[in-house]
Amino acid sequence: MKKLLTAGLLIATAFAAEGYKVLNKIKIGGTGGWDYVALDNTNRRIYASHGTAVEVVDPDAGKVVGQIPQLHGVHGIAIAAELNKGFISNGQSNSVTVFDLKTLAKLGEPATGQNPDAICYEPKTQRVFTFNGRSNDSTAIDAKTNEIVATFPLEGKPEFCVVDGTGKIYANLEDKSEVIEIDAAKPAVTRRVSLAPAEGPSGLAIDVKNKKLFSVCDNKMMAVTDIATMKVIATPAIGTGPDAAGFDPGTGLAFSSNGDGTLTIVKLVNGKYEAVDTVTTERGARTMTVDPKLHRVYLLAAEYGPAPAAKEGQKQGRPPVLPDSFHVLVVGK
């Protein structure tokens, strides 16, 4: 009995909660939906997509400090701090809005493929890549000149992207349930891997040091891919309706933000990637960014009203977002 108790205590310790919880909310307000959120850790700014604008938030002061308005179906934001530039993907106008990080002034709007969604800055080549959801391709842009370098095929519908800092970009292909590797200098797809048994990947995060990718998938799995071999090595369970993934290099924790109002935390335990904690967040808080300085997670969310009554023969409608309730949810210790 003592041996069993000891073993049980060891297991409980290994899978103990990480201590993360909702710390506070940073109110933004206004109306409209949202998609990606990005952190500029150099200048300490959060960039939150919000309908036809990007809201600029100071995470340390906990307040809105600016806005980039008059955009066209905002999806993602990429930051090139070394160039003092930001890049916003506009899904409706098939373009990228380039802006000055200090003044927030618009600097240009190069054209892309159809419905640019995810967007990443690759520092070695100093290129920005949009991942175009309708045309199933990627547009590479010279971040210094704002000129188009090339648009190349991906052979699938892209979702989130990440970079490794050495000239490689990785992206999920949602309809193919794959991760692809892109050589930013060529630019072209060089490798791809099936994420089976995980299906329908959206969010993607990277552990640069240990060369691992984390894809959150529709069937409640996080597919962990070893970059060296391009093989899936683990599929820990996550919440329902995942959209974004994150990784904190300081703590070694990977995150999945789920539409069911949970944040799943995954880490390496005794050589295996396991889900070790679930934090209750808010319904619809499905996109996020990780703060490596404060070891916090910032999620976009809003409050909802009651769902409209179902009409005869139809499903019940979605609950409406309450006006002026949009905010950044701060999760940490």
What do these coordinates show?
The chain is mainly β and 333 residues long. The chain has one domain: 7 Propeller (Methylamine Dehydrogenase, Chain H), CATH 2.130.10.10. 4% of the residues lie in helices and 51% in strands. The protein is built from 1 helix and 28 strands. The protein has a 4-stranded antiparallel sheet with strand order 1-28-27-26, with no helix packed on it. Strand 24 and strand 25 form a beta hairpin. The longest helix is centred in the N-terminal third of the chain and has 13 residues. The radius of gyration is 20 Å and the shape is globular.
Describe the secondary structure blueprint for this structure.
Elements: H1 2-14, E1 21-27, E2 37-40, E3 45-50, E4 53-58, E5 63-68, E6 74-80, E7 85-90, E8 95-100, E9 106-108, E10 116-122, E11 127-132, E12 137-142, E13 148-153, E14 158-163, E15 168-173, E16 178-183, E17 188-194, E18 201-207, E19 212-217, E20 221-226, E21 231-234, E22 242-248, E23 253-258, E24 262-269, E25 272-280, E26 288-291, E27 296-301, E28 327-332
Antiparallel strand pairs: 1-28, 2-3, 3-4, 4-5, 6-7, 7-8, 8-9, 10-11, 11-12, 12-13, 14-15, 15-16, 16-17, 18-19, 19-20, 20-21, 22-23, 23-24, 24-25, 26-27, 27-28
